[in-house]
Amino acid sequence: MNQQTVKNPETPFPETPQLNDRDILNDALSTEKYLCHSYETAMHEASHDALYQLIFTQLRDVSKQQRSFYDLLFTHGWYTVTPADSQEIQQVVQQFQGYKQQLQ
Fold first, then answer.
1. Which residues of 36-67 are buried (b: 16+ CB within 10 A; e: fewer)?
2. pLDDT of 11-64, one tens digit each?
3. 10 and 77 Cβ atoms separated by less than 8 Å
4. Domain that holds residue 80
5. Number of domains in the chain
6. What is the C-alpha end-to-end distance of the chain, expressed in Å?
7. CA separation (Å) from 85 to 4, 14, 88?
8. Helices 21-45 and 49-75: crossing angle, nearest 10°?
9. C-alpha angle with apex 46: 42 to 48, nearest 5 degrees?
10. Is 14 a domain residue?
């Protein structure tokens, strides 16, 4: 397992009981993730094409905003990612290929 992380230098923030920029962005990112999930569910359950298209448009807009919040957090060093190594990726590929074969 790859323990190396990808992170930008951290922008300092005040560590006080009040909300700071990092806290606000983290909250906004969590909210956008929740909205994306909710819009996806609503979109897949929409029975009318016009409603489906409206929800799809909203989902696309919310998804773009979610990415903007992620980019800001990552740029400021407040969001860290751990890249998967090629062996981990291959294991997941094999797992899902097995699922696909089971469904055929």
1. beebeebbeeeeeeeeeeebeebbeebbebbe
2. 988 888 899 999 999 999 999 999 999 999 999 999 999 999 999 999 999 999
3. yes
4. 21-103
5. 1
6. 31
7. 10, 35, 5
8. 160
9. 150
10. no
